Structures are given as C-alpha cells and as structure tokens.
Amino acid sequence: MQVKNSIRARGRLRACLFFLLAAVLSGIAAFALLYLLIPLDQEQVTRIEASPALYDARGRLFHLRLSSNSEWQIPIPLSEMGKWLPLVAVGVEDGRFYRHPGIDPLALLRATVQNIAARRVVSGASTITSQLIRLSISEREPSKRESSGREPSERGPAVPARRARSLGTKVREFIQAMKLERVMTKEKILENYLNQAPFGGNIRGVQAASLLYFGKPALKLSPGEACLMIGMLKGPTLYRPDLRPEAARRRRDTVIRFLRDRGVLTSDTAQRALLEDLPHRRYAPPLRAFHFAELVLENGVAGNGDGRIDTTLDLEIQTKLESLLRQSLSDLPREITLSAGIVDNRTARLVGWVGNARFGDGSRNAWVDCGRAPRSPGSLLKPFAYLSAVDQGFLTASSLLADSSMAFSGRAPRNFDLSYRGAVSTRVALAESLNAPAVRVLRLAGPDRVLLLMRECGLAHLTQPATHYGDSLILGGCEVTVMEALEAYTALASLGRHRPLSLTPSPLPQEETRMASEAACWIVSDILDNRSRLTTFSRETLGQYWHVALKTGTSYGLRDAWSAAWTPDYTAVVWVGNPEGDPWPGLVGAKAAAPVAVKLLRTISPRSSWYGKPAGLGLRTVCALSGQPPTAACTSTRLDWSIEGVTQTTPCSLHVIRRGQPTLMLPAEFSSRETPQEQIQRRAVLSITSPIAEAVYTSAPLDLRQRIPMRAEGAVGRVWWYLDGIYIGSALPNETFFHRVPDGRHVVGAVDEEGRSAFTNVSVVTPGRKRGADILLR
Q1: CA-atom Rg of the chain in angstroms
Q2: pLDDT value of residue 683
Q3: Please, are residues 230 and 168 in contact by the beta-carbon 8 Å criterion?
Q4: Is the pLDDT of residue 23 over 50?
Q5: How many CB atoms lie within 10 A of CB 10?
Q6: pLDDT value of position 569
Q7: Cα separation of 749 and 730, whole Å?
Q8: Which of 174, 489, 633, 673 could hold 564 in an S-S bridge, CB 3.0 to 4.6 Å?
Q9: Residue 169: alpha-carbon gap to chain centroid
Q10: Whether residue 465 has a cis bond before it, omega within 30° of 0
C-alpha cells in the first residue's frame, strides 16, 4: 500500500512539474509572440504637444501660450532639470530604475503577493519606463463611443478616450517598456517621463509645473520643492498645494522621510526640506510683450520641435520701453495711447515692441496693436525726399530753398505755424520741417523716384502710383505703420543699407540692398541731428555731447503724432494717437512723441557715438548764401559737405557783376511779398568772438590737450566748427566749444544752420617745445 502511494505521489509530482514546465514554456512562448506582435512607435513616445514658448535674445522665457491640447507644457533637457528633481523621481517612483530592463521582476512579485493577499489591487509594479509608455501611448490612443444603434454621422466624430486599464493593457505596456529600453538610454527615458508627467489641472511636465507653482524654472528647485512636485504624481489634483495645502504638505513630508530613510537625502537636507513653506497660489504664466509675441506667432515661426521659439527681443530694452510708455500715459487722456518699436541698427533686429501702451489696463481698444495699423504719417517721410535729392546731387545742406507760396498755383502748402520763412537753407528747411521747400524738393528729385526709394525702404502701404499721391506724398497724404516706419528709418540710420526687420535670429546671411549712398544718408542724418525744435526738457535729457537724429510728424487734423529718432546703434519710432482715429489738440509730433523717442534712446543707448565721415564725402567752398560753388561776384564763402563726383557743380546764380559791382539777383519765389529782399539783409551777422582774430595762444609745455575755447555770436541754430577746413564738431548757439589746436597758425571757421559762415586766424605756441614735437604728441 505504501509503495502504491509513493508511486502515485511521484506521478503527481511529475505531472505537476510537467504542467509547470508546460506553463512556463507556454508563458515564454506567449511572451515571445506578444513581444513580436506588439509594436512600439518610438516617435510617439517622444512626441510632445509643447506650449509655444518665446525666449528673448539672451535665452530668457518671456511669453508662454497654451499647447494645441490646451495644456501648459515646456519640454526641457534633463540637464536643465537641476539636481533634485531626477534624483527624487527615481528614488520615489522607481528605485531600481537604472538596474531593470523596463520591468522590475521584484516589484511584480511583491505586487502580486500583496494583491492576492488583499483580494484587490493595493499595489502596482509600474516602472518609470512603463509609466512613460502609459503617458505617451496608452492615454493618447482614441476609441469610439458605442453608437447605440446610431450612425457615426448622427453622433458626431469619434471622441478620444484612454485605453482601458486592464491586465491586457498592463501587459502591453510592460512589453513596450522593455522594447523602449533597448532603443533609448535611461537618461532620455527619465527626461521624457518628467516632461510628460501630469501635475494637476492642465499642467504637464516639470518645467511648466515649476514655473506655475513656484515661479521659477525647474533648475532652481530646492529639495523640498522637488519632493512636493514628485509627490504630486501620486494624485496630481489631490495633492495640489494651491487647492489642498494640508494634503500636499503631508504627502511632501512622507516623500522626504522616505528618501531620508533610504539614504537618498541626508538628515540635514531632509530636515531643511521639512521646514520649507508651501506655495499658496499658482503663478501666472509669463505673458510679457504680448503684441510682439502675436507678431512672431502670426508669421508662422516654428519652434525647434519642443515649442521653443528664439526671438530678437531684448527683455531689458523691452522693460525700459514699457516703463517709459506707461509713464507717458499719465499726461494723456484715457482714449489716447502710444505705440513704439526699437531696432538694433547693427543687425536690423526688432529688440523692443509695444503695440499699445494701454494693453492690460482694461481700457477700450487696449488689445489693438496700433503699431500695425496704417495711419497718416504727417511730415514723417520728408527726409526721404531730401535724401533722394541729395543722393542725385541736386542739393547739399547749404543749398538755398524758397519757403513761399510762389509756383503752387494758389494751393501753396503752409507750415504748421501758418507762416512762411522766405529764403532758407536745406538744413533749415528739413530741420524745421517746412512744407513748401519739401514740396519743391519732391518735385526736384522726381516724385516717381522718391516713391520708389520709399518702397525700397520698406513702406509697403505705398501701393498707388506717384500721380495718386501728388505733392501730399511727403505731407501726410498716404498711410504707413509704425513697423514700416521703423524699417525705413533703420535703412537711413544704417547709412543706406536696407534689410527687412527680423523677429527671430537666422543663421543665414541677411538679405541686404543699398537704397542710397552712405554720404547722402550721412548728410540727412547730420541735418536732423538738431536740437532747436526740442523742448527744454528734451535738450536737457540729451546732454551736451550726446547726438541723436530726430524727425517728427503730425497728421492733418491732429489725429496722429509721430517721431523717429536714431543713433548709429538704435532706431526708435513712436506713435501717439487714438486707436479709433479721433483728433486731440495735444497730438503734435514735437510735443507728444519726440520727448518719448529722445528719452528712450538716451536710456537704452547712453554711450552711443556719432557717425564717422563716410567715403566720398568732402568739403568744398561754396557761396555763403546760395550754397553753390562761388563766382567772382559772391561776397562771402563758406565750407560745405558735398558728395564727390555726384553733387552738382553749377556756379552760384544769385550773384552777378553789374556796373562793376557785385549784385544779388533773387529768383521770383524769393522776392515775393512773403520774402522781401530786405529780410535777408536785416539778419544778424555771424561772428566769431573766440578765438580773437590774429590772437596768439600760449599753452603750457606739459599740456597735451592744448584746447582753446571757440564761440560764435549771431548764429541761427547749431554752429559747426572747422579747423583748417576740417570739421571738428558742433555746439549750440552761444555755447563755448573746446577743441585741441596744435602749435602753428590756423584758420578757425564757423557755420550756422542758415548757411552763414565766419572765419578767423589764430596761432598757438608752446614755449620750450621743439619744432615737430607736437606731431609726436598727437
């Protein structure tokens, strides 16, 4: 009997072993079959619907938008997640992450025993890799609702839903996790997991969560903050610190103690982490420079696949621009706003943009980007007519123009102050924005040629032929935007190099065309480096030695006030007005827009130098009145800039010899009733009061600067000083100008904005200095 029982026991044991072996082999076979049949789309694992994130020129995030999934998600590399987040994530979520092949057999065995003992699911065996599969694949797979007997067309399109959380789903995820481990490094798996992990509401990924919960990037999180965030993964909504602070604190403290007990955190680090405060609110996502961001996103600029869009914006300049425009609003009615932009002339990149200074204050039309709306420019475009005439050789800065009503067939354009000034130089006509001379210059240069120049500069709204605009082309009878004006004036400020404005950096060489010569642009910029029309406050803002070229514009009916200002480094355009186009008496370019533009450039470019003399520009002797090469009949001469080989050399036509005496013959437009001949004769005489004529100045032997004072009286506007025919600088009327003068005899000359000149001789002697030593000291 015992023998029979022993035989039966051995038989049962063999049967059990057989069945166990068969089960194992069947399991292996089934697993191998499933491994072959279940696919893995690695691209789907790494695909992230990132939020468009705009970064400034120095890599600082300034604007964030919701992703196509209406989530906040900013993927970043593992290296930018800091020290603590990856360490805490592995310690809490998957302690053997760096040792298992995608699934953790020990965790599987533990979970199986615990679930069988409890007769319900009380523990899981998910790894970081399998959780990444769930987040990137399982939760993205769509399903269709049951049609309930209706056609799909009756019930609408298929509704995305998560894959059911069944045993089959878990098996599929484990197999895909093992496959993923064979094609992706542990670091990339961890990086993708932390970038896709949910953190409550519509926040996904550690970078977005860090910004919205702590107001700082993940790189700067403390150990306690990292423990709080990783602890939220167990229940993203349940442990949100802004909604359930006590639950969030308990969860965080549990994580900290867990990591301390396993040696991930030291006792001191854990103790400090337990004392950290929790965030009490969610931070707003960065939404700086809204209208600039709209420009970038509407242009269809794509990121690098991670939502990141690098732009040309400079946050420091943008902050100064926004602050200055907000200050300017305090003196304006609520319906009036400002728009402004700043361009770096060296790169033609837009570094600052405010479409509407009232954005965000709740006022009407505050969302409107006024900088993109076409408006009348007033006199803002006059410099381009003068630029064309100078570039063709028709004018120089001292050429005489008529500010009168003659030759306009009864439709003479009057100046802003409703008066005429008679005979004026080109310098005065442009600097004071006189209308009649500007129309004469437009006709002289050719309306078609001026219009072509404007279009080449980027004024895209000038689509009609020149005959459509007529003389009003440079008086405000057209439309431009702030962005177009920025592009045009950047070309002028870049001495004739036109480049389309860029919003994002590009590795490709920038397209560049020459729209005018450097010499012509230099002459126009030099003319507009004029402070006479500025307010006292603006002149004080500039200081004595800082230069800026400035042009203003006021549209008909006082609806728009403009100002363009530039240095060699930056160009700024400011517009002031009502978005709905209503007039306001204070909308005058020189008063409303110019002070803002000047202060803005002075703030962002305090050390900007002025232009050096370009090639092709030289000094020539001209008649002091007409600005043309002198004849024997001219009573006085002066030096003037001209473009070599381009500027016309027609001799002076105003002075002739009659009966052996020099005689002034004014053209009809100069001798009209608005400009009697006596008006010119009664003007004050420009005279040099320092240095004294034929004086000898003695300098100290060790004085290397050897500066002497120069001063002129009777000047109109700025005084330009010359030493031996070479330009050495300028000064305000009645202002003393100091400049170095070497030993020897020299000719000092002065020229004012009316084109009048004066000269004097001076000698400088240094006792004890050997002849020629001065050359060595230069």
Answers
A1: 39
A2: 44
A3: no
A4: yes
A5: 10
A6: 96
A7: 11
A8: 489
A9: 50
A10: no
- At 67, list the tokens: 């992703």
Residue 502 gets which letter from DSSP? B
Is residue 707 within a helix (H) or strand (E), and if so which, with residue range?
strand 707-713
Domain spans in the chain, listed from the N-terminal domain onward: 1-37, 42-143+161-274, 312-374+481-615, 628-674, 687-777
DSSP states of 550-575: EEEEE-TTS-EEEEEEE-SSEEEEEE
Q: How far is residue 452 CA from its own chain's centroid?
A: 28
pLDDT in the model for residue 261: 95
Find residue 560's DSSP bridge partners.
577
Tokens of 526: 């030099």
Tokens of 34: 């499933």
> Per mean pLDDT, which range of 26-30, 235-239, 482-486, 605-609 is the poorest?
26-30
Could you report how far apart the first and last alpha carbons of the chain are, in Å? 128
pTM: 0.78
Among 120-134, 208-222, 679-693, which range has the highest average pLDDT?
208-222
Q: Strand, helix or coil at 117?
A: helix
CA 55 remoteness from chain centre: 11
Dump pLDDT digits (tens) for 450-486.
Answer: 999 999 999 999 999 999 999 899 999 999 999 999 9
- Token pair 């304006």: residue: 332
On whether the 687-777 domain is CATH 3.40.30.10, my answer is: no
Q: What is the pLDDT of residue 731?
A: 86
CA distances from 663 to 63, 194, 656, 658 (A): 70, 90, 5, 6
Give the 3-state secondary structure of residue 437: helix
Angle at 38 between CA 32 and CA 44, to 5 degrees: 140
Q: Look-up: residue for tokens 């006082």?
A: 558
Consecutive H or E run containing 213: helix 206-214
The contacts of residue 494 (CB under 8 Å, 6+ apart) are 345, 348, 521
Q: What distance in Å separates the CA atoms of residue 349 and residue 342, rounded to the nearest whole number? A: 9
Helix spans in 341-434 (H): 382-391, 426-431
**Rounded to 5°, angle at Cα 480 from 479 and 481:** 135
Distances, alpha carbon 542 to alpha carbons 324, 333, 455, 536, in Å: 16, 27, 32, 10
Provide the 8-state DSSP code for 282: P
Secondary structure tally for the chain: helices H, strands E: 25, 26
Question: Which DSSP symbol is given to 591?
Answer: I
Q: What number does CATH give the domain 312-374+481-615?
A: 3.40.710.10
Amino acid 174 reads F
DSSP state of 57: T
Could you read off the pLDDT of 177-194 as tens digits, one per residue? 888 999 999 999 999 999
Distance separating alpha carbons of residues 216 and 138, to the nearest angstrom: 31
Q: How far apart are CA 481 and CA 459, in angstroms?
A: 8
Amino acid type, 149: G
* Residue-level pLDDT at 538: 57
Class of the CATH domain delimited by 42-143+161-274 = mainly alpha
Give the torsion sign (CA, 696, 698, 704, 708): negative
The 10s digit of each residue's pLDDT in 84-110 is 999 999 999 998 899 998 887 776 666
